[in-house]
TrEMBL record:
It is found in: Cytoplasm. Essential for recycling GMP and indirectly, cGMP. InterPro entries: GK/Ca_channel_bsu, Guanylate_kin-like_dom, Guanylate_kinase, P-loop_NTPase. One of its GO terms (molecular function) is ATP binding. It comes from Acaryochloris thomasi RCC1774. Residues 3-181 form the Guanylate kinase-like domain. This is Guanylate kinase. Belongs to the guanylate kinase family. It comes from the Bacteria.
Amino acid sequence: MSGLLVVLTGPSGVGKGTLLQALLQRHPDIYVSVSATTRSPRPGEVDGQHYYFWTPEKFQAMIAAGAFFEWAQFAGNFYGTPRAPVMQRVAQGQRVILEIELEGARQVRKTAPDAFQIFILPPSVEELERRIRDRGQDDEGAIARRLARAKVELAAADEFDLQIMNDDLPTALSALESALLGSQ
């Protein structure tokens, strides 16, 4: 099996995490990249499993060395995808998925133009809003910001190699499996 670098993105609430979880249950050999951050670990988070928890100095040294596929600063902390562990797994023949936001996907397109980029679409903006509301995690202001951001992200869907509509989980999972494993 040849290795493959895959970027998976889509708006908040579209079901990327649910799709990825279902994919990994069926294909545990697929590797999801671990991001690095300068924020402190939350209860239960394990270094190297949930994130690599780095000091700001180490993170900035890695930026200077060009060691990230993509990185950003958000709410006073840095977040990024280290290149070395991902490329090591791709070289070993693994399929590696980067689940990242739109801006990160655009950065990866520049730093790894051969990456296969997949955008997950909701069936409608109304359904996306329902899913965000049903999670019960956000107040009205946060929901409005997520939906405004989602509209910007949805407008970029045609930048991607493949768009998968997540209107039915088994159907969307089958499309994702075909895209990632169809050439095996």
